Every structure is written in structure tokens, then in C-alpha cells.
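Researcher: I'd like a structural prediction for the single chain below. Treat it as a standalone chain; there are no partners to consider.
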Amino acid sequence: MTDPTQAGQQEPSEEEVQQYLEQLREAESSDVLAQAFNMLATGAQVKLGRSDARLLIDALSAISEAVADQLSEQFGQQMRSSVSQLQSAQVQAEQQAGAEPAGAASAPQGSQPASQGSQQAEGGDQRLTDRLWVPGQ
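Model: Treating it as a single chain, here is the predicted structure.
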């Protein structure tokens, strides 16, 4: 399936539009869904670490949940796996973005003050919850 908007800078002709629509009508729904899913996943991957990536990842999750029982088991599993990987990558990217501006990357690992070590022990549960994916946040 070709996208007439990428054929050049000029508007597609009426014939090209009709041809594209015919290709779209004949395409399997799962193929159209796969293309849309891949486009959203690529957008989310490019935006990892930014808050707008979460919107795309949440949309991917909603799509995979909505159509899971209508697709092959393998395709549904691939969609869920992609969403899970993107969620994990987003959380990691957000944590890295939050840690770098604070100057944590410049301090040697073994040179933490004692008070900071005790804060980490008390906040251990908090660090685990930082890894949770909360849709819409």
C-alpha cells in the first residue's frame, strides 16, 4: 500500500486518490491496524522521555486491548509486548531525564554522603513505585 501524500509536493490526482482508496478497501484490516500501530509506536519511541510519549503509548495500549480478541494470538502478543517495552523505556527515560539535571551523573558512585544513603533506604519503596506505569500520567 502506498501513501499518495508522499508521492511529491503536489496534490495527488483524483485517479491517485481513487487508487489509494481502492487499495485501502482491499487491504486486510489487520494490515491497516499494523501500519497504524507501527506509526504510533515509532512516534512514541522518538518521543521517549517526554510527556507526550505517554499519550501515544496509552493509545497503543488502548488499541491492543480493544482488538486483542479479534486478531491472531501472535499479533496480539506482539502488540502487548511492544506496549510493555515502550512503557518500561518511557519510565527509564523519565528517570534519566530527572536524574541528569540534578547533577547525579557527575558525582562518583561511591561518594554519596551518609545522609543520602539513609534517605535511599527509607525511600526504597518509593523508587519501586516510580517504575509503575500509570495510564494518562
